[in-house]
Amino acid sequence: MSYINNSLKILNTFNLKVNVYKVFIIKNLQKLCQLWEKYEKKCYPCLVLGEGSNVLFLNNFYGLIIFNRIKGIYIRESKKYWDLHVNSGENWHKLVKFTLKSKIYGLENLALIPGRVGSALIQNIGAYGSSIENFCKYVDVIDPISKKIKRFNNKDCQFKYRDSIFKHKNYKKYVIISVGLFLSKKWVPNLKYFSLKHLENYQITPQKIFNYICNIRKKRIPHPKIYGNAGSFFKNPCISLKQGFKLLQIFPNIPYTLQNNCIQLSAGWLINQCNFKKYLYKGVTVYSKQSLIILNKFNNSLGIDILNFAIKIYNTVGNKFDIWLEPEVRIIGNYGEINPLIYFKNKK
After folding, report:
1. Which positions are catalytic?
2. What stretch of H or E contains 342?
3. pTM value?
């Protein structure tokens, strides 16, 4: 366990100058439970984070923040599968690199996604035609007060696009401690995402897909040490077939995919049509190479400035297209997480 100062400046990728009452980095489960129990008894709110890569702090946090560094990767194999048991404090990208080095393939499409394994499950991370739900066998969680451990199988987790049961109120009392992943020994490249299809013409390998995706992400997503950001701020919206085909008649160039009787649109394209690349609000703007990324451009903006900028995007896109974007980033207030959807709806 390490105690660090009360500033979260270097511990959130938006580079916001916010403080916290107490912040700890922990490396074992026993210490996590001890800290949680101690500060909850004092009526302080408690929050567990991985790398602060998908959160927006509106202001100072009046409680305890625990950064999870409980590590460990354990491998078993059967005739057809590799089974990995991974502790939640492992860095996600380093896990992907580890599997490739170990000749265990399948996670390469999820390369260079920031954060830790635990937060990856909460968010159901996904990229380039793949998501963690495709490989998740189970998730182990603990109630830090009762110290009871519970296992959720894949179906129990209720994975959806950038969503899982762990994002919902009744399950926030749990802390994810480990995940079971299964990866087939018979590797089949996942090239269904449109920007990967051209790779079908090459002698493709898992390492080549990994390298290609890393290069794309480095070009499209700015490093948070240069421009504070949390990657994609909004989810790509899914709308009904009726609304989608009607919209395509008016805007035939909208990028879209068909998904389970709905049409998923590119949120970045919608934002780009509203000229936000020319808009700067209190040091906040969208990234020139990807409008879905909101930047703390000079690393001196406030959390509320970023939120107000996002609300401006929400209303402008909604009024132009009648599509109301849903935030992907978790919004944190003085005492805990704020439901972003409700917050944005109240600002229409």
Report:
1. 162, 232, 328
2. helix 340-345
3. 0.94
